[in-house]
Structure formats: structure tokens, C-alpha cells
């Protein structure tokens, strides 16, 4: 019998809300392969292109995303998100129907879903990955309580919940990952998940590395602000535009600044390790990457995204990051402030929790073919 058919077939599917959900699945896929599973990754075209660079040997399936888009103005963020709820619920139901069909067609033994609420199944083990057990809400604690109840109602349809943070509060995500009440299914803390590794710097740390990311139109809005200020910056800088598909509008002349649309993980890892400071969004996957390499960050939350604003303030309170709103972004001034940051050494993490969680999950998955 074919050796691949005797392996446990595991579907891994990250949310398409920015590429952070996709990149933090990379350590999980490596661990699944290490423990001799056959991995099937699912996502949209951009997600799969990124994963194929890292894992040419695994299988892939197209799965439409939620296609969430942001408002161009901060004061429209909440209304904009509420208007998209019906489309998101429709996408959740569609992906659940897709999953039932895919499990039958590809003999899937287990599912690992990063924040995709529809990928639960009554007949096989399913894991839901999230760092947001409590979802921050700009409308106050009552709405946070309501959103948490709704969140838990979806999460409890899964077999287990994995949280990519340290088990001891506050961890990296504070109240987001360490709420007062927990879901009614087993919860395991994996430690931070990052594809980045601590690397020795190549030369003196002098470069400013600017990483653009996230959904449009805010990625482009921030790019315009950054490029305007890079034209007069006297320091060496590198700009990574966050465009894995290429394209995007042409940029003005930026002096000596090096510009990349997208970079493979290994090169990005080295640039983050070389940089004196890293300017980026404060999405949680970015926070985990910064922690992994010991970077000193300048964080600019996506306007209106309460989670990113909370994470930025949390790190600023620990003197581990300089923060700014997008509207008040002043690169020269922020670089001066960043010189006062505490040394941001990587926190210890030996990966044991991830190894154990994956092993336990695989032990509960039936063989994809009879012995």
C-alpha cells in the first residue's frame, strides 16, 4: 500500500485576513511533517503562493477567503465591519459545506483551522487556532462580553482550541489570550508561533526596516505616508511593500532606500535581525515575529483595528515598543524615541508545547486508510 495513504491526512487552513494567519501556520506545518503527517493546505491564491515557497512537497486545495476589507477612514471602521457580517456568515457556511465535501474526497483525518469558523466537523478532530479569546471592541466592555460569547459559541464546535502565546499572563497578547473566562473545550497554549528565528546581525545594526502589510486600502494609505517621509530620511532604510503578488502602483524616488515588493522568509528573517529598528503594524503575527528575532519595533496600528491598538499600547507600557497612530506618523521623531527602548531580547521558548499538542492531536486522528 502507498506509504502516503498510510499517513494521517491533516488539513491546515488559515484565515485570509492579512498574511499573518498564514505565516504562523508555517511552524505547525513543519511540526506535522516532522511527526510524519501528510499535510493538505487550503487558502486563496496569495496564501497558497506563500506556502508553496516554503513547502513545495505538500498538497494544496483552493479555498475562498472571507475577503474582509477595511474602511479608508477610522470613524467608519465599526460600521464597515458590521456591514460585512452577513457576507462573513455566508462564507463560514460555505466553507463548512466545502469541508464536508473535502473530507470525503481527500480522506482528511483531522483539521487545523486558524480563525476559520466554518472548518468544524462532527466526525473528525478539529482544532481552532486563535490568540483572541477576548475580542477588543471600541464600543466598550458590554460589547466585548457579547462578542466573546458569540466567539465562544463558534469555537465550541471544534474539538480543541490552540492559543499561540505563553500560558502565563500577560504573555504577548495580554487580555486577548488570557481572559477571565475560557471556552467550553480544551485549550492549549503553544507558545508564540513564528517562522522567524534569532539570527546574528550581519554588521552594525544601523538600517531602518519598514514592513507594510494588511488589507487594503490601509496598506496603500500607510505606504503613501511612509514614502513621503523616506524621501528626506538621512538613515539607511529598506522598504518591504507587502505585495507577494507583485504589482501595486509605482513609487516615487526614495533616495538610497531599497524597495522590495515581497521577500522570502529567510531573507526577511536576516533583514529583521540586521535592522536597528523595525517599523510595522502591530498585528499579533508581527508581534510574534519581532519577539522571535529580538527586534526593537516602531508600531503603527491599522486605524480603527482595536486589537492592534491594544497590542501596541501593551508593548509600549513595557517599554518594548515606540508607537504612533497612522495619522500622526513622524518617522524621524519616532526613531529618536526608539533609541530609549529596552533591549528586546527574545523570550525563551523551546517548542515543546507545540510538539506535544501536535502529537496529541495526531493520536486522536484515525488513519486515513485501514491497516
Question: What can you see in these coordinates?
Answer:
- With 371 residues, the protein is of the alpha/beta class.
- The protein has two domains: 3-192 and 350-363, 3-Layer(aba) Sandwich (Rossmann fold), CATH 3.40.50.2000; 208-338, Glycogen Phosphorylase B (Rossmann fold).
- The protein has twelve helices and 13 strands.
- The strands form two sheets. Strands 3-2-1-4-5-6-7 form a seven-stranded parallel β-sheet.
- Strand 12 (297-299), helix 10 (306-317) and strand 13 (322-323) form a beta-alpha-beta unit.
- The longest helix is centred in the first third of the chain and has 30 residues, at 77-106.
- It is globular, with a radius of gyration of 20 Å.
- 41% of the residues are buried.
- The model is unreliable at 367-371 (pLDDT under 50).
Amino acid at each position: 500500500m502507498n506509504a502516503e495513504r498510510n499517513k494521517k491526512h491533516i488539513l491546515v487552513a488559515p484565515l485570509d485576513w492579512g498574511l499573518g494567519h498564514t505565516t504562523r501556520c508555517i511552524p505547525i506545518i513543519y511540526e506535522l511533517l516532522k511527526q510524519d503527517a501528510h499535510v493538505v493546505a487550503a487558502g486563496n491564491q496569495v496564501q497558497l503562493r506563500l506556502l508553496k515557497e516554503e513547502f513545495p512537497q505538500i498538497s494544496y486545495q483552493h479555498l475562498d477567503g472571507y475577503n474582509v476589507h477595511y474602511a479608508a477612514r477610522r470613524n467608519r471602521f465599526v460600521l464597515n465591519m458590521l456591514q460585512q457580517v452577513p457576507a462573513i456568515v455566508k462564507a463560514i457556511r460555505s466553507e463548512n459545506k466545502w469541508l464536508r465535501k473535502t473530507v470525503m474526497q481527500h480522506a482528511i483525518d483531522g483539521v487545523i483551522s486558524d480563525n476559520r469558523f466554518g472548518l468544524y466537523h462532527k466526525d473528525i478532530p478539529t482544532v481552532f487556532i486563535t490568540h483572541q479569546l477576548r475580542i477588543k471592541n471600541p464600543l466598550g466592555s458590554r460589547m466585548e462580553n457579547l462578542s466573546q460569547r458569540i466567539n465562544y459559541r463558534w469555537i465550541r464546535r471544534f474539538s480543541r482550541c490552540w492559543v499561540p502565546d505563553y500560558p502565563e499572563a500577560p504573555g504577548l497578547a495580554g487580555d486577548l489570550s488570557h481572559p477571565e473566562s475560557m471556552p467550553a473545550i480544551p485549550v492549549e497554549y503553544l507558545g508564540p508561533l513564528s517562522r522567524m528565528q534569532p539570527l546574528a546581525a550581519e554588521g552594525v545594526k544601523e538600517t531602518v526596516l519598514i514592513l507594510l502589510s494588511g488589507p487594503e486600502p490601509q496598506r496603500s494609505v500607510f505606504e503613501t505616508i511612509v514614502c513621503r517621509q523616506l524621501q528626506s530620511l538621512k538613515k539607511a532604510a529598506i522598504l518591504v511593500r507587502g505585495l507577494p503578488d507583485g504589482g501595486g502602483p509605482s513609487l516615487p524616488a526614495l533616495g538610497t532606500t531599497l524597495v522590495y515588493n515581497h521577500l522570502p522568509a529567510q531573507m526577511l528573517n536576516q533583514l529583521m535581525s540586521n535592522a536597528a529598528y523595525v517599523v510595522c503594524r502591530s498585528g499579533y503575527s508581527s508581534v510574534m515575529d519581532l519577539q522571535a528575532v529580538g527586534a526593537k519595533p516602531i508600531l503603527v496600528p491599522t486605524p480603527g483595528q482595536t486589537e492592534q491598538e491594544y497590542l501596541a499600547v501593551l508593548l509600549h507600557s513595557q517599554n518594548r515598543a515606540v508607537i504612533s497612530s497612522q495619522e500622526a506618523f513622524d518617522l524621524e521623531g519616532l526613531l529618536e524615541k526608539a533609541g530609549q527602548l529596552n533591549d528586546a531580547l527574545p523570550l525563551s521558548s523551546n517548542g515543546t508545547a507545540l510538539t506535544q499538542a501536535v502529537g496529541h492531536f495526531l493520536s486522536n486522528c484515525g488513519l486515513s486508510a485501514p491497516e
